[in-house]
Structure formats: C-alpha cells, structure tokens
Amino acid sequence: MNDLRRIIWLASFPKSGNTWIRSLLAQYFMPPGQAPDLNNLRNFTTGDVRRDFFDAAAGGRYDGSTIADWLEMRPQALRLIAGSKPTHHFVKTHCQTMRVGDTDLIPPEVTAAAIYIMRNPFDLAPSFARHQGCDLDTAIDRMMNPDSMAGTAEGIFEPLGRWDDHVTSWTTAPGLSRHVLRYEDMIANTGKAMRGLIETFFRIPVDKPKLARAVRATNFDAMKAFEQKHGFVEKPAEMKAFFAKGQAGVWRDDLSPAQVGRIREAFLPVLEKWYPEMLKETAVVAGAA
C-alpha cells in the first residue's frame, strides 16, 4: 500500500493568519509569475472542507447533515486528499487535533507534519466576531466553548473547541513534527519568521531575493487591495471584508476592560506559555473593569 503520510497541515483557529501563510508559501515555492492569487489558492494548497473530495468519498453527491455523517466520510476524504498529489503537500484545517468517537480528526496515517499558526486571543476576538457576524461578547463565548463548531453549508464540519484547547492540541500532539508561528511575530518581521520556517522546518537554504518578493507580494495592504478589487471567495457572507486591520495590539481599542479580563481569566495558562509579554498589560487593563 502507498504511504499516504503526505499532508503538511496548515492549521489554525479561524482568523489567525492561515490565508497569509498559504499565500506566502505559494509565492515562495512556486515559480515567478505562477503563484496563484488569493482567489485561486486551491491551486497550491487544498483544504479539508472541500466538497469535491467528500463527493468522491461518498461515490456520488455527499448529502451529509450531521456530525455522524461527516465523521463517517472524513477518513476516506482525507485519504483522497492525501493521495491527490504524489508527495508532501499543504492542507488547510481549522479542526482541533482530537478524537471524536473512533475517528481521529487528524489521522497519523495521512499526516507528515504541521505548521500551526496562532494569534493572541485578545486581538483574535474582534476579528473572530467579524468572521462570525456576531458581537464581541458572543465571539468570546464561542472562543471559550469546548463545543464550538464551524463548517460549511454542505454538512462538512470543523470542530474548533476552545481557543486554548486548540492551541494546546496542536502544539503538544505526540509524535507530530510541527513548526509553530505566532501571527504577532509574522507582523513584526515577516522575513525573519519565514526564514525560521524555511531553515528549521523545511531544512533548506533561504533564497533571499525570492523571500523578499514573497513578503512584498503578500503584505496586508496588497491582500486588502486585492479583496477590494476582486473580492475574496473564502470570505463568509456575513463579513463586510475579510481583510480588516491586520495589526497586532488592536485589542487595546476594540475590547472593554471587562472583555480583556474574561479572556485573560479563561486562557491564562496558555497565555503564560505562549504570550508572557502580554500578562502585565492585560492584568492592568482588566483591573480597571
């Protein structure tokens, strides 16, 4: 039997930089002039919610409507995704690494490695609220809900769970070769973050001119301008714009002290591990609530 451990997962909680890293990788690894634009990223990467793979797994039209329907079809759909290219390739996911019943959502038999992109929950909350088409408090509730779920209208689900559980599941999954990127570090110095990924994860020398071109082509202003001109096919219908601010530290303006306190209290252990530099300021702000 062919070895199907070909998937390199590009994993994240929604609105944490997944589109950005996919665009960066496409611009870097594809020949000049051949990298797909934002509306054709599936020509470089694929995703675990693609209906065509579920149709193929079902042997016809996939008509799932329940979690059970999706779980029955997901293992075969992932095998088809893994086998769709002859070697390692990137697959986007927002699923948590967890086992539901007898099904591993991220099966070792199709997994080669993972790149996990995280974003601090204070900045994530306003962006997630826009993504979900809800108010901030509801978005924060969903980030704290262990049963939080996303997915498509065709009955293909994405179990997100809590933000902290999502981070922990991916960053501690046993036996998983992984590279962790923080969205904030990518904003602060995109080139440095990408050099670390290329050199330590892919273990290849960095082509500096190619990297510089990739960074220029995928800066936030360029992606925002593209969406304004052409639209973005992955934008949820309830969102006015997928690319809104693309900054770190927006929580200072967007969140109330009470909301900062809620997030801080709910996710403190993971914040202590991954965002220790935010502990002092968020404690001061939350104390004003």
Describe the secondary structure blueprint for this structure:
Blueprint: E1 7-12, H1 18-29, E2 46-47, H2 51-58, H3 67-82, E3 89-93, E4 99-100, E5 103-104, E6 111-118, H4 121-132, H5 136-143, E7 149-151, E8 157-159, H6 163-172, E9 178-182, H7 183-188, H8 190-201, H9 208-217, H10 220-230, H11 251-254, H12 257-274, H13 279-287
Parallel strand pairs: 1-3, 1-6, 2-3, 6-9
Antiparallel strand pairs: 4-5, 7-8
Helix pairs in contact: 1-9, 2-3, 4-5, 6-12, 12-13
Distance between the termini: 60 Å
SSE order = EHEHHEEEEHHEEHEHHHHHHH
Q: Report mean pLDDT, rounded to a whole number.
A: 89
What is the tally of helical segments? 13
Instruction: Report the radius of gyration as a whole number of Å.
Output: 19 Å
- Beta-sheet strand percentage? 5-15%
Main beta sheet: strand number and arrangement?
5 strands, parallel
Oligomer: single chain
Structure summary, number of beta strands: 9
* Uncertain ranges: none
Strand arrangement, major sheet: 2-3-1-6-9
Using the alpha-carbon principal axes, give the shape: globular
Q: Which percent bin holds the helix content?
A: 40-55%
Query: What class do helices, strands and sheet pairing give?
Result: alpha/beta
